[in-house]
Amino acid sequence: MEKGFEGINHQILLDQIIAPARLKRCLKQCLKIGVVKHPEYPKQGTPQGRLLSPLLANITLNGIEQIHPLIRYADSIIFILKPEDSENEVLDQIKAFLKVRGLNISQKKTKTKATTSGFNFLGWHFKVLGSQR
User: Fold this and answer.
1) Does 2 reside within a domain?
2) DSSP 8-class letter at 34
3) Looking at the domain assignment, is residue 43 inside a domain?
4) 3-state secondary structure of 84
5) Alpha-carbon 20 to chain mean position
6) pLDDT per residue over 36-64, tens digit each?
């Protein structure tokens, strides 16, 4: 994703959380807290390095797995397509899902690779070697 979770729409995130109104108000305040060095009060995004940021990012992306089979860790996602799957159709669905949440696909990081030629994910190299029969 482009810029990680900096673009997350706070209201959409809060709407996805099932919690008492008091807790939601507290979460809203946590999202808007500025940093002393840079007194900015963000209207979107989850501040990097904050304790709640990974949880809130996961809540934001909840449901993306219904688009297509995937492997995800934070903002690193791999969608696993079969030869008969339409790459453009899946990509359009992903873009629409992210757009509603204030996020975009990173054109620079988005790649199509055959698993037999291998790919890198989270610092590891993966490669499907074929049948071992």
Assistant:
1) no
2) -
3) yes
4) coil
5) 25
6) 455 555 555 555 556 677 787 888 888 99
